[in-house]
């Protein structure tokens, strides 16, 4: 084989169809020929055309390595807890599969996402035990993943810790091609994906999805390369086979975000955003990671805000699928908006029609009424508020008000769906709102007035210390959550005790002029009478007298 690159080649001994060459020696890894079945034709109506399309972008590479990882988190300090590599040829035939749990030496992180528990990892290998074996599998293959940036970043950090440098080349990202989560994309292309967020299952599904969306790729790829390469069969691996499924308590917001889509240019950013806000908290570290990824993707502030808006609108779409908006949904949507520095009106504008309740009130004497918007009669002609509307109300015993306060019992608007400042304030104060037409009809007939009301959800606040969020009755200029507030010094005296002492200020310097030599000198500023002679002249005169 000479200097042939590591990869699958025809078995020189004829014991199998393929045998793995490490670059320096043949291994015991073989791959038997797989009989052609009808299922092979389910990947597309014109398989040969798809093969040509993938071959075109693969350039000189003859292997595809589909990777997937489950991790303790999303950031540079996080670790891999499970990894899978599915090796395929340009036709989509699976040549080999490798997967194992990995002991990260720390808590496995969000079990509700990946289903990996600490007890499952006790006998799993550390990453450095599989690192060289993994590097050989990746070397010379075009790397494919659903969110390629994330998977290559996490694996790259792990390989670097094991002393292996990897150049990922130019791979293929099915997230960029579809703009949605793997499960959603697979459902659209009728690709089965049971037990999602298991590395091997996701890698297999990503491989099938790659060929389903092959026409989305037109940029030539290049294979990954890793150094040093050393054949090292893992002493042990541990798959999930034999482990029962973990009980997953998935956060409601994560469930809501399952079907959220994003444009290809911001899809990796939205994926990270989804994970970051799923606990309704956005720490300083998370904000830093999001900013770093945005910079890496070339997103400016306007594009980031657009991504935030699209993500929030996707959550609202999901919440409104059943035409019902619950208090829990509204609470979480408002908190997400606050975490992303978005106006809560983006939520209330779309959800208020689903939250309005109707009731009736009597226009009794003493009721305080405020008016907003234009007043029109049945023919659409304007009615003067001061000359007609207010006197008419007072004639029925009502008290008119120019400004809306909590003491008002009713707001009359041209349209109850108005988004005017007064209507918005009435909704927050819990003041019922009625249309002008219904109001005048009730005055004429004496019947109860039909009004609309919406419960006040409160105001979302974000802790300035830890980034947690909650709903409050009023806005605070310096919001702090209860735990962070309890960690503050109890009083000024305690604050003075715990605060590091300030270093003494350097003494002020003054410049003086000598009356004898007419020179000048500097000295620390002190109280008392200033000397008229410099130190040299004082010493000179003292010596002369001696």
From TrEMBL:
It comes from Mycolicibacterium fluoranthenivorans. One of its GO terms (cellular component) is cytosol. SMART domains: EXOIII. Keywords: Exonuclease, Hydrolase, Nuclease. This is DNA polymerase-3 subunit epsilon. Gene3D superfamilies: BRCT domain, Ribonuclease H-like superfamily/Ribonuclease H. CDD domains: DEDDh (cd06127). Transmembrane segments: none annotated. Residues 63-219 form the Exonuclease domain. One of its GO terms (molecular function) is 3'-5' exonuclease activity. InterPro entries: BRCT_dom_sf, DUF2510, Ribonucl_H, RNaseH-like_sf, RNaseH_sf. It comes from the Bacteria.
